[in-house]
């Protein structure tokens, strides 16, 4: 299932080996799905990926993801082979189930503070979508990102989790990886300012060099290419296949 | 602080005793705030309540809840007296911090499934708001509630958590307590059907008799009275004070 081809309407449901491995239903350019890939890779948990064409979804998707969402993580080792949805819930499940390379802090207060921070990240993701589909909202985007710049100053560490990447870092990374897409959409008005966001700029450099991030990385050019297609109504899901 | 009076614009910040007790900033009729009260009461954690007038918020609210949201739970025992926001994050924090009367399951899969279920509850809360402010959306409300009816059938227990109320039960209760408000808004078209929702109907009866629910209960008439005021632009926050 690692050919990277996205399965769509009319496709046969893939027959996966009965090896008990987790099954991640994903889309290669979905930032939410990327969160699940990152956590699985950070944990070195072996899994099968099934990529889904989100424009023309396969009829069998409902069997593994009743709301037709990705990411969906199917657990063949559990009774009834249940599936989990919602990227943050999947990520926290994996962190609790697989203790190696722990991502969320153990302290209840620190956990809660990281979750509140991620809740506030929706201001960034909302502004991102507005830029992509309405070509407005850049100011809102920078304002929302500033919350994270300030939080890094407050925490006084290179990563949100300290000296190495953790939960917040991986959960927000997919949008940092896509910063160039904003530049593509807004062209001349795009003005990422490393002086305004020195900690975020540094975080981006550090994460780009992180093995987990590198395990599921697409270049700015690839993201732009994907969005160019999507904007023109001709989404090329298999760009990296 | 238990007089129940809501503090508004121009009010002095209440001076609370330096007793280390948690401080809950709340509004008596806010269903999200009710979640925090229920968990605190379920855990028998002593706390101070400060009720906030949400129409004319006190100037000092920003000090304890920077986004001016309720519920906000301030933790005077922790360094810097931090505040937590977001009802589900507050509830999970309390459940992790205070192990007595555990509410979420310990098993990572069951925890994730309960969280996904609560994520889906937003369809109920969204439909509720639509009914309140646009007088439409009743069909959507029943459709969303049906997910919960079916889940109770699937789980085969009176409560979502088994034989006694737990996390999901207390998190959804505030909206079940307010069912009568829908009847008030929609009048003749309101058609809660206990035959369509036998498990939910039974759950409501059971929860009404639960000591934790009783510790923060308002009657249908009181909720209707509150909403009658709110709809007419004359919100009476202190109805129960």
From TrEMBL, chains A, B:
User: GO cellular component annotations, sorted alphabetically?
Assistant: cytoplasm
Q: Does the keyword Zinc apply?
A: no
The Swiss-Prot or TrEMBL record annotates one GO molecular function as:
glutathione transferase activity
What UniProt keywords apply to this chain's record, in alphabetical order? Oxidoreductase
State one Pfam family annotation.
GST_N_3
Per the record, the GO terms for biological process are: glutathione metabolic process
Source domain of life is: Eukaryota
User: To which protein family does this belong?
Assistant: Belongs to the GST superfamily. Omega family.
What protein am I looking at? Pyrimidodiazepine synthase
Name the source organism: Drosophila pseudoobscura pseudoobscura (Fruit fly)
